[in-house]
Structure formats: structure tokens, C-alpha cells
Design goal:
With 298 residues, the protein is of the alpha/beta class. The chain has ten helices and eleven strands.
Length: 298
């Protein structure tokens, strides 16, 4: 569906979280009513059908990292709207509304932390901020997360959740695909591990770049993973897609994903992988990447 044909409700539905604010939550898969505290104790998954609710970076930090170990970096970067883009409303207004609604400055948070005492760099996307779309700030912050991993010689873990490129930044958003891929090529040259965790949904330009370049690619159950969405593909091909098309299980069967991991097992799985992927001694000095400051402000 073209952006200009979307209703306000369509856009808000794409940007919202699964997590309600009340005491009870309704499973989006089986319809079970769940007491919110029970949901949190079950890693924000349905105890009846294992449906994984969409959660944000705060929840992943709490669930995965050692207590008080996360040190955030580049938290103050904000898009400056380089194209002065306007559709139904100015892009600056969308960014400001996203900041007020989520408490975030953009759709990704980066930093360093530890899992069972092992240090790592983290890049965690938030679908609640303009649909997790990748613009100049997301690309720059991911590049800086790679730099953290290279300079400190620690593994990099990315948790993805995205509707794709941020069309309000046009070609600038598409350039982030190349930018993040080049950064990961430098990481690979130094043989520093890069692990990706695909969550629902991971689509568009994020899938076409850093989400699919991991040394190990994990996915949460039933996460939507692809480039274009199933509805768009059906409209273009005029064919009915198979059951479960583009879900984690389908992608595992077709070789796009290495392993599907329930959220309650994710911390232990990452810990094991990090322990099995030692980092060799530094071969060449890592160079620092300078930020393109004209695209955003701190």
C-alpha cells in the first residue's frame, strides 16, 4: 500500500506496540486474557499459545543483560529533517510526536553491556518509533555500535524490529543500507562476532542490510521476516501465498534463519554463542568513523 493512500489509523496501527497499559492483556493470537504481571514473568509471551508480544528496547535490556550493565551511547542523536519532507504532516512533527509518545529519540538504542559477565555491544530497535523505520539516525547509531564492538573487541548483538526504510528521508534512508553493510564488512575483517535476533516484524531495508548479515541469525517464533509484506507480494504476483509465508518457521525451513529461539531461552542462547565465538588478537588498528553531522543533531 502506497504511503499516501494510508489512513491515519493504518499508520497508528503500524507504529503501536502489542503491550497494553492496563492490568490485563489479550493475546493477539489465541485471544487469551492474561494478567499483566503473569505476562511479564513469562517474558512477555502468552502462557497458552507462546505468542510473543512486541516489546521495546527497555524490556530486552532487562530480559537479556546483567543488571545495571547497560551503558547507552549516542542517545541524543535526532534527525534534522534534511529534506524538509511533508506528507500528511511535516516529518519534524512526526519525529517530535514519536519522541513524546515513546520517550525515545529514534528507532534504535545502542550501547555496551554484559551477559553472564561477558561484554558485548548492543543495537536494539524499537518498532514503536515510526514503525522502527531506518533513517539517517538509525544508520549512524548502528555504525557507531559496530565501532564500539571493533574498538573494545567485543561481540555485537542486534535485535531488529522494523517496517523498513524511512521514506520521509528518501534516498538518504536507502544509503543507510550500504553504510551499515560496509561497517559490518569491517567488523568481519577483524573476525569479531555479529549475532542478529530477528523479532516481529523485520522487513524492508533493514532485512536487506544488517539484519541478514549476521554470523548467526536467530529469530523469535512466528516473527514476520521479509522484504515486502505478504499482502504486497500477493497483489503483485496474483497468487495465493503458502500458509505461514515469511514467518520465522518458513524462513528457517528455507535457510534464511539459523535457529528459532523462545524469548525465555534467548539470554542463555546468546551467552552460549558468545562463549563459542572467541575474538582473535587485533591484526590492524581500527579506524574511527566520523558522523555525518549535517543529517542529525546531538
Amino acid at each position: 500500500m502506497a504511503w499516501f493512500n494510508r489512513t491515519k489509523k493504518n499508520i497508528e496501527d503500524q507504529q503501536g506496540r502489542d503491550m497494553p497499559d492496563g492490568l490485563w492483556a489479550k493475546c493477539g493470537d489465541c485471544g487469551e486474557l492474561i494478567y499483566k504481571r503473569d505476562l511479564e514473568e513469562n517474558f512477555f509471551t502468552c502462557p497458552k499459545c507462546n505468542h510473543h508480544f512486541r516489546i521495546g528496547s527497555d524490556e530486552y535490556i532487562t530480559l537479556l543483560l546483567d543488571p545495571d550493565s547497560f551503558a547507552e551511547s549516542a542517545a541524543d542523536l535526532i534527525s534534522t529533517d534534511p529534506l524538509e519532507f511533508v506528507d500528511e504532516k511535516p516529518y519534524k512533527t512526526r519525529v517530535e510526536q514519536g519522541r513524546r509518545r515513546t520517550g525515545l529519540n529514534d528507532a534504535i538504542r545502542i550501547g555496551t553491556g554484559a551477559i553472564n559477565g561477558a561484554g558485548l555491544a548492543m543495537a536494539i530497535m524499537d518498532f514503536s518509533f515510526i514503525g522502527g523505520s531506518m533513517g539517517s539516525v538509525v544508520g549512524e547509531k548502528f555504525a557507531r555500535a559496530v565501532d564500539l564492538a571493533r574498538h573494545q573487541r567485543i561481540p555485537l548483538v542486534a535485535i531488529t524490529a522494523s517496517g523498513g526504510a524511512r521514506m520521509m528521508e528518501a534516498a538518504i534512508s536507502l544509503m543507510q543500507m550500504a553504510k551499515t553493510s560496509v561497517q559490518l564488512a569491517l567488523l568481519a575483517e577483524e573476525r569479531i562476532p555479529y549475532i542478529v535476533v530477528l523479532t516481529d516484524p523485520t522487513t524492508g531495508g533493514v532485512t536487506a542490510s544488517f539484519a541478514m548479515l549476521g554470523d548467526v541469525i536467530l529469530a523469535e517464533p512466528k516473527a514476520l521476516i521479509g522484504f515486502a509484506g505478504p499482502r504486497v507480494i500477493e497483489q503483485m504476483t496474483k497468487k495465493k501465498l503458502p500458509e505461514g509465508f515469511q514467518r520465522s518457521e518458513f524462513q528457517l525451513e528455507h535457510g534464511f534463519v539459523d535457529h528459532i529461539v523462545h524469548r525465555k531461552e534467548l539470554r542463555d542462547t546468546l551467552s552460549r554463542l558468545i562463549s563459542l565465538m572467541p575474538i582473535p588478537p587485533l591484526r590492524v588498528p581500527a579506524t574511527k568513523t566520523e558522523p555525518a553531522t549535517e543529517l542529525f543533531e546531538a
